[in-house]
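Pasting as-is:
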Amino acid sequence: MQVFTYFLPHSIVISNSFHILAFHTPWYNDFMQQALLTWYDQVKRPLPWRGTADPYAVWVSEIMLQQTRAETVSGYYVRFLERFPSVHALAAADEQDVLKAWEGLGYYSRARNLKKCAEVVSGALCGVFPGDVDALRKLPGIGAYTAGAVASIAFGIRTPAVDGNVERVVARLRGVREDVGIPSVKRLIQWEAEELMPADRCGDFNQAMMELGARVCQPVSRCEACPVRQFCDAYEAGDADALPVKQRKAPQRVIPRAIALVFHEGTVLLHRREERLLQGMWCFPGFDHVDTPGEAAKQLKKLDIDAVYTETVGNARHVFTHIIWEMTLMAFRAETRVAPEGWLWTDLDTLASLPLPTATKAAQRAAVERLSQFVPDLLA
């Protein structure tokens, strides 16, 4: 029988078969927890939300970190808390101001839910976040992961916080080789994650699991750098890169899209989107499956916007979760400042003050360049 010797307390020697049987023994988890927390204490990144137990600050950071890299979030987090230093300040803010502060982070439903949740906590809960996982999950925009993160980091509750990184770590540590998209397997991952939790330092442990997944236990694994590889089923089996098992996603649909930059005497036309995608953000007129100026002009006409095409000013591409916009940026000149209800003629200052999504940044730059060249007749 092959024997593996690991550098554990008391020079414990673990055989291949015993290693698997040991998964749910207290000493196994104790050693794994100690190894991971020691590593975390030594190498954790100095991120601005680390070290706080303020439920409001923890909650804001965790919402921002969903599907967004920590390096990107850091600056936004600091500026957001300066702008909205308390849950009461966020609840009282205008949604447009919140979206503006969120501009560039993407997934804007997070910002809208952040505002809704703040209103509930500030009002019905008198500004106090509940220190209970089930109560946290009842709040707008808070799911299992965010509830676990806030409960463990802010309140020290022994509960896991399973995001995509932690799901990958747990699947490899415990050797889960079934599709994690299956509800029963997802519940197994959650249960295994809870089994791994220590009795104390729960918040640090969850953050250590996230750190491990973000920096070491990546989709292409770096097992030799892993502080807990001696406890890992996938490392022993040599199939870490194959885990977790996930059903292949459908390919993203590529949608050609015309973006109309409609100008009139130092202003450009915007509208506030009501559609679920980019809801609440201000955008230039856009038309799916349109790639010619003539067709774009027809679409504008349907909105009662009379405009003449002048030139194509560029192209841009933006990748969403399920679709890709391939955009052609077309400039138009409107003869009058007439626009449908819910649309707005904006000058440079107004354009800078409104929340615009990252998908429109190339169009926004083109609009700013054009508006910057405008000189009113009175000043000419």
